[in-house]
Write a structure and sequence with these properties.
- It is a single chain.
- This protein is mainly alpha-helical.
- Among the domains are: about 45-135, Cytochrome C3, CATH 3.90.10; about 175-259, Alpha-Beta Complex (Cytochrome C3).
- Helix content is about 25%, strand content about 5%.
- It contains 11 helices and 4 strands.
- The protein has a two-stranded antiparallel ribbon with strand order 1-2. The chain has a two-stranded antiparallel sheet with strand order 3-4.
- It starts with a helix and ends in a 7-residue tail after the last helix.
- The chain binds heme C (6 copies).
- One heme C binds near residues 185, 248 and 253.
- The site of one heme C has 22 residues, from helix 4 and helix 5.
Length: about 260
């Protein structure tokens, strides 16, 4: 009994701490530090490479998402949304799976002896020069505040980039589904989050989110709360590592003041 009491007292205390530190939106969540803009979205892939005498592969999202939607890789080609979960062998790539679907020597550089090091770069790879061209010279993409510091939504909407929706069926287009949802937080003093389907569908398949991440019925997704988002669930699946990061409170909670 004493134990249970202590537990609930602890619960109350931590709620109180959350209340005091969360409101009114500042440096409460103790978010992990963001990498520099050119490294945001980089994924170190090293399930086997180092063990097999090759340097690790550092996959860059920004250099690929200018040309391809998330859907191409995470729906058509079946890459996992979690680093290290795709289980890739060099043989698969040579067979045209995973990276090999494009890196075949015609759409993109192929898997040849002199190209091993283009992918197996090791952790010290520096892509900052190529990245600078995205914003300045070549692409002139609109600025964002966090993450890659690129406003990818505007870049796509203005046609500055045309990420392919499908690599197999060029005629395929996203379903027109413009439903915007206001996701009221359970705590009345927190300004609600907004979710726009039409800013997501150019990049993603409905099946990327439904039903494994979100139920299709509004407000039936269980435990849909910030504490779980911070565990990289729900919106946090993408908005921690690749899309505009969780630090950007006012992107999702438009009425929250900027940090
Ligand atoms: C050209 C292919 C490609 C494209 C396009 C792509 N991804 Fe990825 N993504 C990958 C690969 C490869 C991984 C690493 C998977 C692994 O390690 O098993 C990955 C991993 C991820 C992860 C996990 C990162 C982590 O640190 O855990 C997230 C989240 C993600 N991608 C989201 C996106 C989103 C959102 C988009 C669209 C804006 C996108 N990806 C576009 C290939 C791609
Ligand atoms: C959907 C097609 C596609 C897939 C899948 C893909 N790439 Fe690429 N990748 C490209 C294209 C197109 C380019 C640019 C053309 C070129 O460099 O040949 C490119 C460029 C690159 C570059 C040079 C630019 C940079 O980021 O430094 C690297 C390295 C690279 N890819 C690694 C990978 C790895 C590793 C994977 C798998 C984990 C992968 N790619 C999967 C299409 C793809
Ligand atoms: C287009 C990008 C790309 C190129 C080019 C490439 N690799 Fe890889 N390779 C990968 C990725 C991605 C993995 C998976 C990394 C991991 O998780 O360990 C991998 C894994 C490996 C592995 C460990 C897995 C296994 O099958 O044993 C070896 C060995 C390997 N590559 C050798 C090579 C050699 C040799 C070359 C050049 C002939 C090469 N790779 C070129 C992307 C590439
Ligand atoms: C990036 C993730 C994501 C993508 C992609 C996505 N949805 Fe959703 N969808 C959501 C979220 C989040 C909700 C709200 C869930 C909740 O409230 O529990 C939702 C809710 C819905 C609802 C219920 C709306 C209501 O008012 O009750 C429908 C219907 C729906 N989605 C259809 C689709 C269709 C069709 C597509 C593809 C064109 C799609 N979704 C793509 C995240 C997504
Ligand atoms: C499967 C990946 C994924 C999930 C899950 C996801 N998003 Fe996104 N989101 C994206 C991508 C891709 C973009 C395009 C812009 C970018 O990458 O920064 C985006 C853009 C946005 C934007 C900016 C555009 C706009 O509509 O104003 C907001 C806000 C946003 N997402 C909110 C949410 C919320 C809220 C959730 C959870 C209910 C969510 N997202 C879940 C991938 C995702
Ligand atoms: C990618 C979108 C997204 C971003 C970025 C985001 N939130 Fe949230 N937030 C949500 C969603 C979705 C909910 C849950 C709404 C609901 O209950 O249906 C939520 C709920 C909340 C709640 C209510 C309590 C709870 O746990 O549900 C608070 C407080 C909150 N967010 C604060 C913040 C702060 C502070 C930041 C910036 C550090 C932030 N959020 C960034 C999407 C986001």
């Amino acid at each position: 009994m004493g134990k249970i009491l202590t537990k609930s007292a602890q619960g109350l205390l931590s709620l109180l701490v959350v209340f005091i530190t969360v409101f009114p939106c500042a440096a409460y969540f103790n978010l992990p530090p963001l990498p520099t803009a050119d490294k945001y979205g980089d994924v170190v892939m090293d399930q086997k490479a180092t063990a097999q005498g090759q340097k690790a592969v550092v996959f860059s999202h920004w250099s690929h998402r200018v040309r391809f939607s998330c859907r191409v890789c995470h729906f058509e080609l079946d890459f996992a949304f979690v680093a290290g979960q795709s289980d890739i062998n060099e043989e698969d790539i040579l067979d045209g799976d995973f990276c090999g679907a494009c890196h075949d020597g015609s759409q993109a550089f192929g898997v040849t002896k002199q190209n091993c090091v283009k992918c197996h770069t090791g952790n010290d790879i520096d892509r900052s020069k190529q990245f600078a061209q995205l914003q300045d010279k070549l692409w002139k993409l609109p600025q964002g505040q966090y993450g890659n510091r690129i406003n990818w939504t505007l870049a796509q909407q203005r046609g500055l980039i045309k990420p392919k929706y499908s690599m197999f069926r060029p005629e395929e287009k996203p379903l027109a589904f413009a439903k915007a949802l206001v996701l009221e937080a359970e705590w009345s003093w927190v300004s609600p989050a907004v979710f726009n389907h039409d800013t997501h569908t150019p990049w993603l398949d409905c099946a990327n989110c439904h039903p494994s991440i979100f139920n299709i019925k509004k407000k039936t997704t269980k435990h849909f709360r910030m504490e779980y988002i911070l565990e990289k669930k729900f919106c946090g699946v993408c908005h921690f590592a690749v899309s505009l990061p969780i630090d950007d409170c006012s992107a999702c909670h438009p009425d929250m003041r900027k940090r």
